[in-house]
């Protein structure tokens, strides 16, 4: 029916993981002058490959269109992201001994939010970032950056320039890659013998267990498990030698990889233990994915029930955050300004714009202090602790915070 092929193993795919209807591109915030104009909507239908069990969205829009000069995500705006990045740098330097003689290269380096911590420790850094607007911010901060997508061609070009990485890293980027083989194929070219790669990505097992379906949007081409990522790296001559379960994005993995046969990096027991957990959870059988969709529909009804009851009781509801995941959540649930008056975000770039599809206006966080709503729906739930801490004044007038997933929770 769909005539789709897996983006990794090229096997035919037809097994549905989740069908969320149609949605605009997640970060395509609407300018006020375009309020009366039409937005493009695309099918948001994720499938799972029956051979390698990669969960994936078909290519609906080019990466060049999505990650353009208008790309609106700047990592440095989140205190939680910065704290996580600094802790990572300190851990990597302590564990692997990176110093002034080392070369660190980050893929999807954004505005230099992470590399600056390596640079402060005297380590040579280079960022590779496809969006010119955020790469420009990195350059202004003193982080050397190349504006291009990463893959085999980029790796060869940098190698010819004399670059060879002791560490390559990519946080929350692998899911954004339409051609996984080209992307992963670049690492063994640019990483020197004895060097390592670390990649962080939302853990598919946690997405399924905790119903974080709003992580499905058009920037995310793939949804990743350890068992599938192992296969992808192995196909390109690299071995996963360690894995950590980490907190960001509701539960992520940080994988450590090296050239196959590198005896300096023996495979830890954590890899086998997590692989066994994923197998036990059904991630290597089609049946393991088939209950997700109905459980998601239950959470949709749960959120709509809360919002309707709040409005019928005369309560005011606003949002906090304008992340990409909010586009999926609100468009799938059909939530517009009849349910949520507005949302706020710390990124000045988004102020004055409208959320894609739903056209909910985006204001600075101070707007909440002015209007004193009854409920603040945390759309950026992955940093809910940061938000509730920074906006503690909401409780002064009896306002309450609400988390939408995995079930609606009104926080005390």
Automatic annotation (TrEMBL):
Keyword S-adenosyl-L-methionine annotated: no
Membrane-spanning ranges: none
C-methyltransferase domain location: 249-406
Protein name: Class I SAM-dependent methyltransferase
Residue span, Methyltransferase putative zinc binding domain: 6-67
A Pfam family: Methyltransf_13
Species this protein is from: Amaricoccus solimangrovi
InterPro entries with a match to the protein in the record: Methyltransf_Zn-bd_dom_put (IPR013630), Methyltransf_Zn-bd_dom_put_sf (IPR038576), MeTrfase_14 (IPR013691), SAM-dependent_MTases_sf (IPR029063)
One Gene Ontology term of the molecular function aspect: methyltransferase activity
Keyword Transport: no
This protein's UniProt keywords: Methyltransferase, Transferase
Biological process annotations from GO: methylation
């Amino acid at each position: 029916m769909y005539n789709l092929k897996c983006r990794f193993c090229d096997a035919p795919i037809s097994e549905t993981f989740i069908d969320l209807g149609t949605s605009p591109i997640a970060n395509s915030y609407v300018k006020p002058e375009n309020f009366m104009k039409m937005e493009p909507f695309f099918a948001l239908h994720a499938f799972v490959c029956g051979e390698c069990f990669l969960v994936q969205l078909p290519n609906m829009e080019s990466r060049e269109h999505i990650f353009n000069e208008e790309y609106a995500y700047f990592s440095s705006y989140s205190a939680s992201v910065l704290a996580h990045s600094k802790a990572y740098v300190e851990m990597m330097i302590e564990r692997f001994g990176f110093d002034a003689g080392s070369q660190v290269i980050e893929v999807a380096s954004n505005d230099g939010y992470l590399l600056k911590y390596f640079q402060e420790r005297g380590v040579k850094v280079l960022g590779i970032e496809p969006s010119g607007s955020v790469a420009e911010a990195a350059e202004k901060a003193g982080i050397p950056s190349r504006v291009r997508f990463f893959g085999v061609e980029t790796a060869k070009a940098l190698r010819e320039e004399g670059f060879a990485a002791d560490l390559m890293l990519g946080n929350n980027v692998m899911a954004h890659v339409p051609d996984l083989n080209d992307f992963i194929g670049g690492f063994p070219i640019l990483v020197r013998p004895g060097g390592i790669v670390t990649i962080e990505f939302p853990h598919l097992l946690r997405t399924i267990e905790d119903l974080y379906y709003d992580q499905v949007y058009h920037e995310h081409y793939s949804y990743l498990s350890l068992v599938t990522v192992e296969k992808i790296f192995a196909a390109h001559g690299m071995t996963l030698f360690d894995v950590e379960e980490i907190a960001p994005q509701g539960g992520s993995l940080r994988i450590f990889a090296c050239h196959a046969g590198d005896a300096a990096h023996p495979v830890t027991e954590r890899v086998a233990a997590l692989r066994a957990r994923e197998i036990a959870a059904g991630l290597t059988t089609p049946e393991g994915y088939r209950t997700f969709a109905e459980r998601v529909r239950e959470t949709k009804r749960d959120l709509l029930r809360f919002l309707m009851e709040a409005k019928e009781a005369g309560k005011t509801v606003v949002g906090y955050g304008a992340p990409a995941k909010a586009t999926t959540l609100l468009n799938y649930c059909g939530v517009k300004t009849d349910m949520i008056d507005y949302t706020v975000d710390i990124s000045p770039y988004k102020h004055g714009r409208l959320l894609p599809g739903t056209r909910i206006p985006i204001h600075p966080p101070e707007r909440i202090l002015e209007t004193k709503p009854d409920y603040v729906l945390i759309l950026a739930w992955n940093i809910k602790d940061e938000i509730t801490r920074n906006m503690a004044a909401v409780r002064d007038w009896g306002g309450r915070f609400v988390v939408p997933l995995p079930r609606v929770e009104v926080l005390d």
